[in-house]
Amino acid sequence: MTRNEQGFEGAEIADAAAAAVTTHPVVERKALRAIALFEAAKGLGALAISLGLLTLVHSDLQGVVVNLIGTV
């Protein structure tokens, strides 16, 4: 292998570049956990809304609206 101007071979340059851009594993794990919790909350919210809408399918829609509004 040939050496560049600084005296490093190709593999040494790659190792030095990889070491310069590594992230801290704890920070990465916390970020992934936060994203996972947010996505889980979104999923549970969507499930709750869909189950609530499913209960309206077989009920009297006018009666539900009157109960929500309180007047006719």
Molecular structure report:
This protein is an all-alpha fold and 72 residues long. The protein has a domain at 24-69. It is 74% helix and 0% strand. It is built from three helices and no strands. It has helices spanning 10-20, 25-57, 61-69.
Write a compact overview of the structure shown.
This protein is mainly alpha-helical. The protein has a domain at 24-69. The protein is built from three helices and no strands.
Features:
single chain, 72 residues, mainly alpha, 3 helices, rod-shaped
Which spans of ≥5 residues are poorly predicted at pLDDT below 50? none
Mean pLDDT: 78
Order of helices and strands: HHH
Shape: rod-shaped
With helices defined by DSSP (H or I, 4 residues minimum), what is the helix count?
A: 3
The amount of beta strand, in percent, is under 5%
Taking all Cα atoms into account, the compactness measure Rg is 29 Å
Per DSSP E runs of 2 or more residues, the count of β-strands stands at 0
